[in-house]
């Protein structure tokens, strides 16, 4: 938990380093998570409250709640995963409705299930995730826009609830999976709450 507090302080205290930083707006981001297969399913929502700085940077807190169930080799479980974090994104303005974004997101989630050993954990039940991300923001109207991007988890904890959604696999010459990259794709709805201009 101390790591979460430290990262939160670093992200939000860095605003004082830039004397020309101006709050130019805020927005609510809602991203969903869904995966399903023959062995289980998982779904959830992750709201983020972003403060817009100088019309380019978005920083703020995030919260996630997720429900997961599995029936892998007779090992059945159902769990609720939740936690909070912080995020920082930068958007590069382009002409037209689309902009490019990149950033980082840290979340600390209560996830009491190890996805490698398929066992319920009694210790170390908190899973840190640290995604670096990039993608596009598409403004659909003045009331909302969509973020669509690829996220890579640098920590890749064994009890990360996103492991079931890792979508990129590397195979050898025989077609066997030799590595699963800790990457997910995510679509978010962005709703502007306040704008100075």
Question: What can you see in these coordinates?
Answer:
The chain has one domain (2-195): Beta Barrel (Porin), CATH 2.40.160.20. The model has no long low-confidence stretch (mean pLDDT 86). It is globular, with a radius of gyration of 18 Å. It is built from 1 helix and 12 strands; from the N terminus they run αββββββββββββ. With 197 residues, the protein is mainly β. β3 and β4 form a beta hairpin. 6% of the residues lie in helices and 63% in strands. The protein has an 8-stranded antiparallel barrel. The protein has a two-stranded antiparallel ribbon with strand order 6-7.
Beta percentage is over 45%
Outline, from the CA principal axes? globular
DSSP, total strands: 12
Question: What would you report as the Rg, rounded to the nearest angstrom?
Answer: 18 Å
- Rounded mean pLDDT is 86
Low-confidence stretches: none
Strand order of the largest sheet: 1-2-3-4-5-8-9-12
Structural class: mainly beta
CATH topology, what is it called?
Porin
Euclidean distance between termini CA atoms:
38 Å
Q: What is the total number of structural domains? A: 1
Task: Give a quick set of tags describing it.
197 residues, mainly beta, Porin, eight-stranded antiparallel β-barrel, two-stranded antiparallel ribbon, 12 strands
Topology, please?
Layout: H1 2-13, E1 23-37, E2 40-53, E3 57-72, E4 75-92, E5 98-110, E6 113-114, E7 119-120, E8 126-139, E9 145-153, E10 168-171, E11 177-181, E12 183-195
Antiparallel strand pairs: 1-2, 1-12, 2-3, 3-4, 4-5, 5-8, 6-7, 8-9, 9-12, 10-11
